[in-house]
Design goal:
extended, 121 residues, mainly alpha
């Protein structure tokens, strides 16, 4: 969580600019897991949109159609939902440093664009 807070602080200093920049697509978002699990929460979040009720029903049904895939047990014994939750857990600063210390010395960058040399610093 410490890494996440540090990165968020730097990101907001760099990108946010004026407070007005924190509205619209930059506004804080609801917890989509709660919305996926609760029709009431879905309706509450969607109450201020101009999408007709019929189409909102179609969207809700489509979201619910993913439940079977999310709750299916994988070879590792976890469900896809559990695996996603594990992947979204932010490493501690110690875990991050340890991963960097033991990383390969190659030059290819990851999806982030960071090479080993940049992270290793």
């Amino acid at each position: 969580m410490e890494i996440l807070n540090l990165l968020n602080n730097e990101f907001f200093k760099w990108h946010a600019g004026e407070i007005d920049a924190l509205t619209g697509i930059n506004a804080k978002r609801p917890d989509w897991q709660i919305i996926l699990d609760s029709k009431e929460q879905f309706d509450l979040v969607m109450s201020d949109v101009t999408v007709p009720t019929k189409e909102l029903g179609i969207i809700w049904t489509a979201l619910q159609s993913t439940r079977a895939q999310l709750d299916e047990t994988l070879e590792c014994g976890d469900t896809l939902r559990e695996k996603i939750k594990k992947l979204l857990i932010m490493p501690t600063i110690e875990e991050w440093r340890n991963a960097c210390k033991h990383a390969s010395g190659g030059k290819a960058s990851s999806m982030s664009g960071l090479t080993y040399d940049i992270v290793k610093g």
